[in-house]
Write a structure and sequence with these properties.
The complex is a heterodimer of chains A (about 725) and B (about 525). With about 725 residues, chain A is α+β, with helices and mostly antiparallel strands. Chain A is built from 20 helices and 25 strands. In chain A, a hairpin with a 2-residue loop joins strand 13 and strand 14. In chain A, helix 5 (about 160-175) crosses helix 10 (about 260-270). The chains are: A alpha+beta (about 725), B alpha+beta (about 525).
Chain lengths: ~725, ~525
């Protein structure tokens, strides 16, 4: 098709300015601003007269891979040195075996704070400001940080300033002062960061996906909370530092414009006095025990028009295992760069995403995870998930084509030289192998392994290590815009990511044996006070009550009846103005019967009700000896002028709660727990127990008032309590 | 801590999302290092021996930086065209072409070029009719449906002949490293590295890329770019804020346009538009290619002439004529979001060619580089801000742009309170002289920044091509910055006074909605 020269259209544009945007004439569009006209290409197709695929190249010339010198000082510090005189600067990097996996569960965030304050908190001889002035005065940097399983410190200095910078670097590593106000600043910054952690979809997805795979309490997934940060003191930081920062737990590499022997002298001078920790045992990271389970999880976020999707399951390989070699090729075929299957099919062919990714990871000592995902517009959420899972299924069934295999292998082998093109990489790798006790020539062995991988091996490992039917699926997105319901992929578990202000279930502080002992004692005292051995007689409980619920449209009254037989046989009936709802739970099954019909309940809801059951005082006292029930004495507190003992209960199912017990009568006067508001969102709640009356030797509060965030929400008055009533046959049958 | 919240830049649009060139502008500015004269000279001298310049007859400039440490080589093609060159109604086309530059050529990525071109032409013809029908309110819905079906069919037909991934596959087989690209308001950059024995491949591929691009699979890639927009802007509070801020700050100059493009423009972009944009701007005089690594300049010269000599000489495009008029009063935008607050402030400033450019670099250094900076000491350490950054030019510096400030309030601090504290800091610069030490620090830091930026092939290729294209001479990377060494206390005060005026300011902020009303 012949096109008008641009100059001509430029005129058209000037004449038709107003219309151009709404009713383009032909396809006359305003041309590039400032572009001068020139004729467009005509019918003729220009084709280069060479074929790139037939190019041959000279052999890559041999080159001498720089060999760093390795020295161990008397105090156990391992040093790698590499001279490089290209530019007048010197850099250093240290790695220390520690990490946030070793911080106590009640002080999550401690390692990160130590990593920050080592640098910001001054040293024994210099104030924080002095360090900043000195370093920045010579254009140098020193930084420290602590990650999950290692800590690092780095230095960058002009050659001429090394006398200033190296001693500061050494002091920061060997005698940081942890100035109190800098610990406070770091804590405040951690809390600011916590407050911002739910703003970015990808950040949310990565964090929550880890929690799904590892469990939210796992050292490999847990995150700091306001209250875990609050518990951290300067003393904690000092202790954490002192536990791990020893020369014999540290690797140091230095590279740049120096003479090796002279630099070694300087390092001896700077680090020689650092005292060795005798009998030091390097910490061993905990081994996560993981299993793959299919689940569909949703984190609703209203202010996005795109879903961030993560799909995957725990992995089963370390890097050292031979299978990781074909897995590396599998990764390339599945998701390597622009030409991996995921990229090609999800992005290039379907245009479903800009960002699409996937990888089976492995660590040096621990197994990794398998993950894949994409960010796609809300409407195509389910479509994109299906496409990704389809690719995971396909790679297990269809071996890579010879072309795919060749591409993956050649890509790896031909780009191998880039693993040696910077000193930093060479030294980092050496330190890593030393740190994890890998052979020095591990990379060469690995490369030789890649050369021999076959298509069959790729399929074998894909079958062995990928489980598309057992993936956890996580979506951060706006469900009101989804084109298809997420529930088409399975029962949807909604994840609550609101930031807790105080401990509950998740991230609860650890307890000392003494607290557990006292807790158990107090729980038994409560049991004694409320009925003692009478509890042994109970086989079932029936409560009939009237509830007055405060709603935005006024007070609503409902009649309820609950029958509790065992820990897992429950019947609940609620008579509301709109009709009657009954819930029947039996073991792992549950049904809900509403005026609109009967249906089975998702396991998450069943669990929730089981959890709530434990907050029933009578039930709790009957089950006080349950082996999986934990009671912890959390000291005393004063409420409304009354001193009360805090008894934290961690039930076998559901989230924990705290009973407030009168020290004199041993009767609980209130309970604090994480409840749910009308919209089903978690909210901090309190119930007060009033009007205790005795029924068959057991004291039961006949009036219970519920508060949410301090506002009165519900008053429950017991009309009748029956113990050991004869139960209707079939009471707990859940079949539809 | 400091790196927890990423900075902002409109440089972040690259074909692959794995590497995001957020630091490009920042890096560039940093590299405009303040080199102490004598030492700058010796460094420059060192590079004089390593650098070979050559300009082909068609006007295309090459810079070769020899570095024989390892047998690898990095390439950076700097196209002096960015989103600021886009016409109204076609925002995003510069970036769209960048994506298209990965889709192959007439000899790479096709099964049968004759058939493919015919199919692509047919596809385009139908798309133009569909587009017109979509934009015409009176279109009969049946007709629209028919056209949609025909278009879909035409697309499938064209795709039958396409092997668009071939471009990357060839490079991958050759052992490519760091294959990527970016688009900014000022420029579009393409880069990758290869083992040094495969230099010839670069010349054959890259010259074909800009001589015979086919722009296949345009319409599916347009969907990809829309997803990129959703990711970077639609679903990111800070992305949304930057777009509002930028739009408010410029009423005339295209620096106010988002580099990624407006969604409605993207939805209607045509392959023809992308081709015309390419033809107007990707002329040899508008391209600068830097090659750094283990190469022989003589061989490079031969290859350059053989392969890039084929690009026909064409007149370069004219510069942007639109000038941003002087701002008459403060502009403010407040977004009420469910997320945590941010503050953005911008003051109009002249381009990189202004004699005061160096002073702006010093100002941003004094305000926010390092832990001795004003923002760190008075905002971060006082727990008003989790982070506060000044950036010397946004969204580009080829034309007059903005001196920008991003403030991230600490927990519980309102954006207004942080704004007040930032304004106090700016006022101090207008009334009190900065200390000699602070000035010296800025100058020393620049020297170390410069040196740090010279230690990789890819960094060298990027910086040298950028400086050559932007300032006319790569030596300015070393030299121009003596200007900065000449900046004194009076300059800082004068420029602060001229710039940090209320009437010259655009503020955009995110304020957090009341929690209970906004909860999920």
């Amino acid at each position: 098709m012949k096109e008008k020269p641009i100059t001509q259209r430029w005129t058209t544009r000037l004449l038709c300015w107003g219309i151009a945007a709404t009713l383009p004439t032909g396809d006359a569009w305003p041309t590039a601003q400032g572009a001068e006209g020139k004729p467009s290409s005509n019918e003729q197709i220009n084709i280069s007269d060479y074929d790139i695929r037939s190019f041959t190249y000279p052999e890559l010339k041999d080159f001498k891979i720089p060999r760093p010198k390795r020295v161990r000082l008397d105090n156990g510090l391992t040093v790698f040195l590499l001279e490089d005189h290209e530019l007048p600067d010197i850099k250093a990097s240290a790695r220390i075996a520690t990490g946030s996996v070793y911080e106590p569960a009640e002080k999550i965030g401690l390692a990160s704070i130590v990593g920050t304050v080592m640098r910001t908190g001054g040293t024994e001889t210099m104030s924080p400001d002095e360090i900043n002035r000195q370093l920045e005065g010579v254009g140098a940097t020193v930084e420290t940080s602590i990650g999950r399983t290692s800590a690092s410190a780095s230095m960058s200095s002009l050659k001429e300033s090394l006398d200033t910078v190296l001693p500061i670097f050494a002091d920061i590593l060997t005698e940081p002062a942890f100035a109190k106000q800098k610990v406070a600043l770091a804590k405040s910054q951690e809390k600011s960061a916590i407050s911002r952690r739910n703003d970015k979809p990808r950040q949310i997805a990565i964090r929550e996906f880890r929690q799904l795979l590892y469990g939210s309490d796992s050292p490999y997934a847990r995150v700091p909370q306001y209250f875990t940060i609050d518990r951290i003191s300067r003393q904690d930081a000092v202790r954490f530092y002192e536990a791990y920062f020893h020369p014999n737990n540290t690797l140091l590499s230095v590279w740049g414009d120096f003479e090796t022997s002279e630099m070694l002298e300087r390092i001896r001078k700077a680090f020689g006095d650092w005292e060795k920790e005798t009998n030091f045992q390097r910490p061993k990271p905990p081994e996560p025990k993981l299993e793959a389970n299919h689940s569909v999880n949703l984190i609703p976020k209203r202010d996005v028009n795109q879903s961030t999707i993560f799909i995957g399951h725990p992995g089963g390989l370390t890097r050292k295992e031979p299978d990781f070699i074909p897995v590396t090729v599998m990764n390339e075929v599945l998701a390597g760069g622009f030409s991996g299957r995921l990229f090609e099919n999800v992005r290039s062919e379907q245009g479903l995403a800009y960002s699409v990714f996937g990888r089976y990871t492995a660590n040096y000592r621990r197994s990794g995870i398998f993950y894949a995902g994409a960010a796609t517009k809300s409407q195509t959420t389910v479509e994109a998930i299906r496409s990704i899972i389809h690719e995971i299924e396909t790679i297990r069934k269809e071996p890579p084509t010879q072309k795919e295999l060749k591409l993956a292998k050649q890509g790896y082998l031909n780009s191998f030289v880039f693993k040696f093109d910077t000193n930093r990489e060479i030294l980092d790798r050496l330190m890593t192998y030393e740190y994890y006790d890998y052979p020095k020539d591990f990379l060469r062995q690995f490369k030789e392994g890649i050369e021999t991988v076959t298509a069959k091996e790729v399929t074998q490992v894909a079958k062995r290590y990928l489980f598309p039917d057992k993936v956890a699926i996580l979506v951060v997105g706006n469900p009101s815009e989804f084109g298809q319901e997420l529930s088409r992929l399975g029962e949807v578990n909604k994840i609550d990511i609101s930031i807790p202000k105080e401990p509950s279930g998740k991230g609860s502080p650890e307890s000392s044996p003494e607290q557990v002992k006292q807790g158990r004692k107090l729980l038994l005292a409560v049991r004694e006070a409320l009925g003692g051995t009478s509890f042994n007689e109970i086989t079932n409980l029936t409560f009939e009550a009237t509830q007055q619920i405060e709603t935005p449209r006024g007070t609503m009254e409902i009649d309820t009846k609950s029958v509790i037989a065992d820990t897992d046989r429950i019947f609940i009936q609620q008579k509301m103005p709109q009709g009657t709802v009954t819930i029947t739970l039996n073991g792992k099954k549950g049904t809900i019967n509403t005026p609109r019909g009967k249906q089975s309940m998702p396991s998450s809801q069943i669990k929730q009700i089981h959890g709530e059951l434990w907050r029933n005082l009578t039930f709790l006292c009957r089950e006080a000896q349950h082996p999986k029930l934990k009671a912890i004495h959390r000291g005393k507190t004063e409420i409304d002028g009354q001193s009360l003992a805090k008894l934290e209960i961690q039930p076998p199912v559901g989230s924990q709660f705290t009973l407030f017990v009168s020290p004199k009568t041993k009767m609980p006067v209130r309970v604090a727990y994480q409840g749910r508001n009308m919209q089903g969102n978690p909210v901090s709640s309190v119930k007060t127990y009033e009007k205790y009356q005795t029924v068959k030797g057991i004291k039961i509060p006949h009036k219970v008032v519920t508060f949410q965030k301090g506002n009165k929400r519900r008053v429950t008055k017991l009309r009748q309590v029956r113990l050991n009533a004869e139960l209707k046959a079939g009471r707990f049958e859940t079949d539809e | 801590m400091i790196r927890r919240i990423s900075g902002i830049s409109n440089e972040a649009y690259c074909v692959m999302q794995r590497k995001i060139y957020i630091n490009f502008i920042v890096g560039l500015i940093a590299a405009v290092g303040l080199v102490h004269s004598g030492k700058a000279e010796s460094l420059l001298e060192q590079f004089e021996h390593k650098v070979t310049e050559l300009t082909l007859e068609n006007g295309l400039t090459f810079l070769v930086i020899e570095r024989h440490e390892a047998p690898v080589v990095s390439f950076h093609t700097y196209a002096d065209v960015g989103s600021a060159n886009e016409p109204i109604g076609a925002t995003g086309v510069a970036h769209m072409f960048e994506h298209m530059a990965f889709k192959g050529t007439t000899s790479i990525g096709t099964k049968d070029i004759e058939k493919e071109m015919a199919a692509l032409k047919r596809q385009e013809r139908i798309y133009k009719r569909l587009r017109r029908a979509q934009l015409n309110r009176d279109t009969n819905p049946d007709k629209l449906d028919r056209l949609k079906k025909r278009f879909k069919k035409a697309r499938k037909e064209a795709e039958k002949w396409s092997q668009a991934q071939e471009f990357e596959r060839i490079l991958k087989r050759a052992g490519v490293n760091g294959l990527n690209a970016y688009t900014s308001a000022d420029a579009t950059g393409y880069m990758y590295s290869l083992p040094a024995n495969k230099v010839k491949l670069f010349f054959a591929m890259e010259s074909d890329r800009f001589l015979n691009p086919v722009m296949r699979e345009f319409y599916v890639e347009r969907d990809v770019v829309m997803e990129e927009r959703r990711q970077r802007v639609g679903s990111s509070p800070l992305g949304r804020l930057v777009e509002e801020w930028q739009a408010a700050a410029f009423i005339a100059h295209p620096y106010g346009q988002p580099t990624i493009g407006h969604m409605s423009d993207l939805k209607h972009l045509t392959r023809t538009q992308a081709r015309e944009f390419f033809e107007a701007y990707y002329v040899p005089k508008n391209l600068t290619i830097a090659i750094a690594g283990d190469v022989d300049p003589d061989q490079i010269r031969k290859l350059a002439e053989k392969y890039f000599g084929r690009l026909p000489s064409q007149p370069p495009p004219l510069p942007i004529v639109t000038e941003e008029p002087k701002q008459r009063g403060e502009r403010q935008v407040t977004l009420v979001e469910s997320t945590q607050p941010y503050v953005l402030m911008g003051y109009h400033r002249p381009s990189i060619h202004s004699p005061d450019h160096a002073t702006y670099l010093v100002l941003s250094d004094i305000l926010s580089r390092g832990r001795t900076s004003r923002f760190y000491q008075n905002l971060v350490e006082k727990e008003l801000a989790l982070q506060a950054n000044a950036f010397a030019s946004f969204p580009g510096n080829k034309n007059p742009g903005l001196f920008g400030i991003l403030g991230v309030p600490s927990k519980g601090v309102s954006p207004k309170k942080l704004e007040k504290a930032i304004l106090d800091e700016l006022d101090r610069l207008k009334t009190e002289a900065v200390s000699e030490q602070a000035l010296e620090r800025a100058k020393t830091r620049a020297r170390s920044d410069l040196i740090n930026g010279l230690d990789s092939n890819s960094g060298l290729a990027k910086q040298f091509s950028t400086f050559e294209a932007l300032t006319g001479n790569w030596r300015n990377l070393f030299r121009q910055l003596d200007d900065i060494d000449a900046v004194d206390q009076d300059d800082v005060k004068r420029v602060a006074k001229e710039t940090f005026k209320r009437s010259n300011r655009t503020v955009a902020r995110i304020r957090q909605a009341q929690r209970d009303n906004e909860k999920e």
